[in-house]
Amino acid sequence: VIRPPLFLCDSKFFRGGKLEGSGNIERSRVCRGFRASDALAVFDAGLLDVSRCRAWVLKRLHPDGVCCPNCGTAIAEHLSPLDRRRCKSCGKWFTALTGTFLHGAQLEPEQVFLLAVLSELKVDKKEIARILGLHPDSVRLWQAKFKAFEAINA
Known about the structure:
The protein is of the alpha+beta class. It is 36% helix and 9% strand.
């Protein structure tokens, strides 16, 4: 039995579109991420540039700007995906990926973006794995994560 991935969004664990330990999705808590179809819709040759691709991913994760995931204080300065910051209000350490569906991912944001685009184009899992240098099981799990994200944010 293949189980959908378990992932953390805003301190809640979700599996297959359901809040872990509950029968319903808690709709008041929205996981920040993007749909595979969103990535395909904007994909063009310019998004093969790493900095432009990262900027798109961060804008999708934080449409209103980066905030502390603990207290919600806005962070004015630019924050790249892996830069660690300490909130001046509450003292919590975080990155731009904390509290998003990329939190704890072992992939760069541009790899996840390309995985989303290739998945939406129905490219074979083994071919996606070869292109991105991943194991096919990693591709399968990320595809399940995108489906779970869509279910949570439907």
